[in-house]
Amino acid sequence: MFEKGWSKDTQVLAWVLSYDGVNSTEPLAITAAAVALALSEAPLKKPVAAVRVGYLTETGMVLNPSIQQMESSQLDLVIAGTEDAVLMIEGYADFFTEEQLLEAVSMGQDAISAMCREIGQWVSIVGKPKRSNVGRPQYEELESFFRQNYAASIKKALSTPGKLEREEAVTSVKEAAMRSVEERFGSMYDSNVISVVFKGMQSHVMRQCVLEEGLRSDGRGIKDVRSISAKAGMLPRTHGSALFTRGETQAIAVATLGCEKSAQRVDSIASEENESRRFYLQYFFPPSSVGETGRVGGPGRRELGHGMLAERSLLPIIPGEDVFPYTIRVESTITESNGSSSMASVCGGCLALMDAGVPVKDMVAGVAMGLILEPNGEFVVLTDILGSEDALGDMDFKVAGNEDGVTAFQMDIKVEGITTDIMKAALQQAKEGRLHILKEMKQCLQKPRTSLSEYAPRIEVISIPKNKSIELIGPAGRTIKAVTETCGCDSIMVIDGGNKVQINGPDEPSVAKAIEMIKGIVVEPEVGKIYRQCPVKTVTPFGCFVTILPGKDALCHISELALERVGSVDEVVAEGDFLDVMLLEVRAKDKKMSVSRKAVLLLESDPADEKLAEDVAASS
After folding, report:
1. Taking the CA of residue 535 as centre, how many other CA atoms within 13 Å lie in the half-sphere pointing to its CB?
2. Can you point out the beta strands (E) in 347-485?
3. Rounded distance between C-alpha atoms, residue 255 and residue 324, angstroms
4. Cα–Cα distance measured from residue 15 to residue 34, given in angstroms and rounded to the nearest whole number
5. Beta strands in 348-453, from DSSP E residues, in sequence order
């Protein structure tokens, strides 16, 4: 939006000085930055503004929804533009149709147009005069020289198969052109000017090939998707993995499952205390993926942005915590890149989730669209763009979703003039490309695996009576710690206000053992029920104490040990023995319990006479 030729370093700083927790800050920051430029001497062509659009079931599309409304919104769209056209959109949706997205964009653009008109009126009153001496120098003679002598060579170089080979061919033509310029014009043009004009000619040739012949650098038609291959489960020790390759762009995605403690902590202006994400995607773009060397450290702006786009693309298909109580982390590492690695991360991430056994709601794929737009309004939309088509074209429009709707979309453009008609064509063509990619992905995996990896942890959630949570935890947490250590679990947590227990263990046997012990602790002992193989914990002169349930001991009086009279407890039992006993009583006052071995022996000696055993229990 700056006049061509503006080369001054220009910095706009936006701070949130006060936040009410009601209105989102992003559209305000974009609008404020644009207004500051419009009021300044910087040669901004037109005022720019931004809005957010949401969608509520009860009211439909909502302009600039509040933070509270966004919590239940099925759409999160941020759009920026001028009075006449869209400049940028980024949004996430719950499987919205292309028609719904166009409706949201249209609402946002109408609001932006009104804002820009008012900003323009304000600027006309209080704005500073714009600098006028910023026109880009014209190099018509040099442009004509390149057009006559090197247009054909550039076209041939751009048609070279393979990214590296294509770059080498273009570099070779550029070096020859620079030598010719020096021979023809001497030192009239420096190397920077020659590079700028050559790049302009390269863009012109590429655009003309697309517009006039319908052909692209790698020989594809405008709607063709590059060849796709996908393989799941290629890393044996991970919980889930997938290798997704589209042309010369490749991503290795790994899905890892964990417990609640593995969730990603969130600290932002709008985040609540201790807020965390149970699903997150981390994107890595090493310099080796584009044949370069460079510093490798923390994630940069590109990695954060691409990772968030891929994460939000997949978020609508992640099952709820009540269905799949795991924390899910997807890591996407780009091994080679020639266009749209973020959308490759969406495809690879979806397959990795399925390989890990995550019961995703549906399959999701993504594709990047490009645009060639001429000043006369003629345009061509390109499907699955290359890196060079992104650099030399006018638009990068990424769209992700399933067969029925869109989950994420992001558009950046380099020209003003993206109309509703262009967006409609781009969305429809993106849907065609997305359906093709989904078809290819289904040849790798059609549905999630039915079981988890043997290396994945096991998490089970069981319900317990709310009044039993304190009993399960025990004094200073000793009971729950003892169960955790005895069973070899990683952690056992009481959740949902004491109504549920989450057991996290390294394997199924440890979790199953913990569940059995927990049920024994929280279960209410039943009077008249027989408890088998109860270990004798302590022997006393007046009887013995047996453990009928985990953490629950009961007294078997000496008179209840046998059918005949017992002179000494030691004659019948010893510590470590196992007894079958019937629960006789649970005292209301202190919950102390009494059991009888005699009642069980009596019942087993004459199984038909259950009444006799009941009478024994009652009399005791």
Report:
1. 7
2. 365-373, 379-383, 395-401, 406-413, 458-463
3. 14
4. 14
5. 365-373, 379-383, 395-401, 406-413
Would strands 543-549 and 530-540 be described as parallel, antiparallel, or unpaired?
antiparallel
Closest CA to 459 of 416, 398, 497, 502: 502
Could you tell me the mean pLDDT of each successive run of 10 residues in the chain, 620 residues long?
84 92 93 95 93 95 94 95 91 95 94 96 93 76 89 89 87 92 86 89 89 86 94 95 96 94 85 84 94 89 94 96 93 94 96 97 96 87 91 90 95 81 91 96 95 93 87 89 92 88 92 90 88 93 91 91 92 93 90 93 72 51
Q: In the structure encoding, which two tokens stand for residue 207, read together?
A: 């655009």
Amino acid at residue number 546: V
In one-letter notation, the amino acid at residue 216 is R
CA distance linking residue 281 with residue 331, whole number of Å: 6
Global pTM value:
0.83
CA distance 67 to 364: 27
Sign of CA dihedral 147, 153, 157, 158: positive
Q: Cβ–Cβ contacts within 10 Å for residue 64, how many?
A: 16
Q: Within 10 A of 460 (CB to CB), how many other CB atoms are there?
A: 16
Please tell me whether residue 325 adopts helix, strand or coil conformation. Answer: coil
Nearest CA to 277 among 307, 232, 235, 240? 307
Handedness of CA 402, 404, 405, 411 (dihedral sign): positive
Cβ–Cβ < 8 Å for 249, 340: yes
251: which 2 tokens? 């991503």
CA distance 108 to 87: 12
Q: 386, 397, 396, 344: which is closest to 160 by C-alpha?
A: 386
Nearest to 279 by CA among 331, 345, 327: 327
Cα–Cα distances (Å) from 390 to 182, 201, 206, 394, in that order, read 31, 16, 12, 7
**Which CA distances in Å does 106 have to 69, 102, 274?**
20, 6, 37
Of residues 488, 489, 494, 496, the one with CA closest to residue 459: 489
Six token digits for residue 225: 């998707």
Chain centroid to CA 417: 32
Task: Decide: residue 68, CB within 10 A, 0-12 exposed, 13-18 middle, 19+ buried.
Answer: exposed
